[in-house]
Amino acid sequence: MEDSRAKALRDAWKSQGDPLCQHTRLDAESTASGYFTGQYVCKACGEYVPVEQHASPSGLQEKIRASRGRYALYTSMGLLAAAVPFLTVWYKRRRSDPE
Predict the structure, then answer these.
(1) Which of 1, 2, 38, 92 could link 27 by a cystine bridge, Cβ 3.0 to 4.6 Å?
(2) Can you tell me the distance from the alpha carbon of 32 to that of 88, in angstroms, rounded to the nearest whole number?
(3) Distances in Å between the alpha carbon of 36 and those of 5, 30, 32, 41?
(4) Distance between CA atoms of 51 and 64, rounded to whole angstroms?
């Protein structure tokens, strides 16, 4: 979620009288250019929520850890998929060159 959207959510939440929020759905905050700010924002009210201190019965911290692992796995698989054509061409050229 972009930081400008989080600010708009905070303003809208405060205009409703600032009711209590359980912060059950979090999203990582990013800048307009897509950089992660290091903070997590509640999707309902827009408030910053420290993930280390947030304890919910739904296991939010485990979900965040699992998504980080999936991201690393998919990124490494993507790098491997990008390298396979290069390695294939290199291997074929190496085998066809007379030494």
Answers:
(1) 1
(2) 39
(3) 14, 4, 10, 12
(4) 9
23 versus 54: the higher-pLDDT residue is 23
The domains of the chain are located at 1-54, 57-99
- Taking only the tens place, the pLDDT of each residue in 27-77 is 888 888 878 888 888 888 888 888 765 455 456 666 666 666 666 667 777
Q: C-alpha angle with apex 48: 42 to 49, nearest 5 degrees? A: 75
The sign of the CA dihedral 37, 43, 48, 49 is negative
Cα angle 30, 36, 38 (rounded to 5 degrees) comes to 110
pTM: 0.47
DSSP-assigned letters across all residues of 24-64: -SEEEEE-TTS-EEEEEEETTT--B--TTT---TT-HHHHH
Which is it for the CA torsion 49, 51, 52, 53, positive or negative? positive
